[in-house]
Specification:
The protein is mostly helical and about 260 residues long. About 80% of the residues lie in helices and about 0% in strands.
């Protein structure tokens, strides 16, 4: 019962936020009086019409496939590596210089190289998003494992636990919340980079839909693409949050 009340309250907060954003949008549209920013009811009506077409969902499905594949790829590579670096001083000393040197570099500038190496299809776009997300997951997970106090490891090893049990009973539970936090925060980055990589060299995806509509001055269709990308971002965020609650259930026990 409590779970249903919590979900209903969450949906209510979402609806209230949408209402306030809609009122602010309406006021701004009235002030500007420009077709570039149509009234929210006109944009919503256009989104409703486009949402009934197969073409819109083909763009949505393509973008969702690219974003989810990139997040999964980033997680599978960066999360185990973050645990290794956080749990082993030798591995951390060996790899940290590479991370420190390459982390500040804006990865998006490498997109032309990715396109040349991996082609114009999905592979280059997925790899570009995964590269950017992987650094966030790696650094956050590594720092989370570093924060484990030695007394927790000593207490397990004093009971005869080997490296595998230390990994399963101490390091992995400590790393999972940090890894999911990085992944949840990365959903916004994933959608932003997705828009950029779909802005050229493709004819599918919500990013292409937005840019193509903007170029043809079809602003209502452009807002349909923006709504679609916003919906994708919310679904990715909530999906990651739900997955964390399932995998890290101990963190939420006893909470309202």
């Amino acid at each position: 019962m409590r779970s249903w009340r919590s979900r209903a309250a969450k949906i209510g907060r979402y609806l209230l936020a949408l209402l306030l954003l809609g009122l602010a949008w309406k006021a701004l549209a009235e002030v500007l009086g420009s077709s570039v920013l149509p009234p929210p009811e006109a944009a919503l009506a256009a989104f409703g019409r486009d949402a009934l077409t197969a073409a819109f969902w083909r763009h949505f499905g393509t973008s969702a496939y690219r974003a989810v594949s990139a997040m999964l790829l980033a997680w599978l590579i960066a999360f185990p590596l973050g645990i290794l670096m956080g749990g082993s001083r030798r591995i951390d000393a060996l790899l940290s210089p590479f991370v420190s040197l390459t982390y500040p570099i804006p990865k998006i500038v490498l997109l032309p190289i990715f396109l040349l190496l991996l082609g114009l299809g999905d592979a280059s776009k997925i790899a570009m998003i995964a590269l950017i997300l992987a650094y966030q997951i790696l650094v956050t997970t590594r720092d989370g494992v570093r924060g484990v106090h030695h007394k927790h490891i000593d207490s397990v090893t004093s009971l005869g636990a080997g490296k595998l049990r230390v990994f399963l009973d101490v390091l992995l539970p400590a790393a999972l919340p940090h890894g999911f936090t990085a992944l949840r925060l990365g959903t916004g980055v994933s959608v932003a980079v997705l828009f950029f990589v779909e802005s050229f060299a493709t004819q599918t995806g919500l990013g292409y839909l937005i840019i193509d509509s903007w170029g043809s001055l079809d602003y209502l269709r452009m807002f349909s693409g923006i709504f679609g990308m916003s919906l994708l971002g919310v679904l990715l965020y909530e999906g990651t949050d739900l997955l964390e609650r399932l995998v890290c259930a101990w963190r939420y026990q006893g909470r309202r």
